[in-house]
């Protein structure tokens, strides 16, 4: 039984995240999609809203025999990973620019918990420029985000940002 944690802010979940989860589901028996309860960062959606959007979105992906579970965590990722008896942490890499930061985190995490591996996965090229931050910025300024996030997320963003 191989269990992975896919941690992140997911504010909101994008099609890039879903692509990583779908790919990861071929490698693991269970993936826990873990929403960081971030207190310091400005978030558009509450943790509950982010979890709700993930639950809705996961219903749309083909995960085969892999069990997908949504959870949230606070504090040190590695402590949470140990509590969950995880074997690995999954992170998506879009471009080389992601790699430096991700490598730094992965090595720091490995120092905390050498038993838990970080697995970097490449999202489909079509999502290589998609980030939650840019999706929020473009949408709030009136741009289109169709095809970059699930339709349910777009709808929730419309409601949240009072757009018609
Ligand atoms: O989606 P994000 O915002 O890039 O995710 C970042 C996340 C949640 C993976 C990272 O901030 C994290 O692991 N935070 C938990 C606190 C922690 O363990 N920090 C040390 C990381 S080396």
Chain-wise SSE layout:
Layout lengths: L2 E6 L6 H10 L5 E7 L10 H12 L8 E7 L3 H7 L4 E6 L2 H17 L4 E6 L9 H9 L10 H10 L4
Parallel strand pairs: 1-2, 1-4, 2-3, 4-5
List keywords for this structure.
164 residues; 5-stranded parallel β-sheet; alpha/beta; 20% strand; binds 4'-phosphopantetheine; Rossmann fold; 40% helix
Question: How does this model look, in words?
Answer:
The protein is 40% helix and 20% strand. The chain is α/β, with parallel strands linked by helices and 164 residues long. It has one domain: Rossmann fold (3-Layer(aba) Sandwich), CATH 3.40.50. It has a 5-stranded parallel β-sheet, with helices on both faces. The termini are far apart. The structure holds 4'-phosphopantetheine.
Shape: globular
Determine the structural class based on helices, strands and strand pairing.
alpha/beta
- Number of distinct beta strands: 5
Provide the list of bound ligands, each named once. Answer: 4'-phosphopantetheine
Summarize the structure.
This protein has helices spanning 15-24, 47-58, 77-83, 96-112, 132-140, 151-160; strands spanning 3-8, 30-36, 67-73, 88-93, 117-122.
């Amino acid at each position: 039984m191989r269990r992975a944690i896919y941690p992140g802010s997911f504010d909101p979940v994008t099609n890039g995240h879903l692509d990583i989860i779908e790919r990861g589901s071929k490698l693991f028996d269970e993936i826990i999609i873990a929403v960081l309860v971030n207190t310091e960062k400005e978030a558009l959606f509450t943790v509950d809203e982010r979890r709700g959007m993930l639950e809705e979105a996961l219903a749309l992906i083909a995960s085969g025999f892999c069990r997908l579970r949504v959870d949230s965590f606070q504090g040190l990722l590695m402590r949470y990973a140990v509590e969950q008896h995880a074997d690995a942490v999954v992170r998506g890499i879009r471009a080389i620019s992601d790699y430096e930061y991700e490598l730094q985190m992965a090595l720091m995490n490995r120092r905390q918990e050498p038993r838990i591996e970080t697995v970097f996965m490449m999202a489909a090229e079509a999502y290589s420029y998609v980030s939650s931050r840019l999706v929020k910025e473009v949408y709030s300024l009136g741009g289109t985000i169709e095809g970059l996030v699930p339709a349910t997320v777009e709808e929730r963003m419309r409601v949240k940002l009072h757009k018609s």
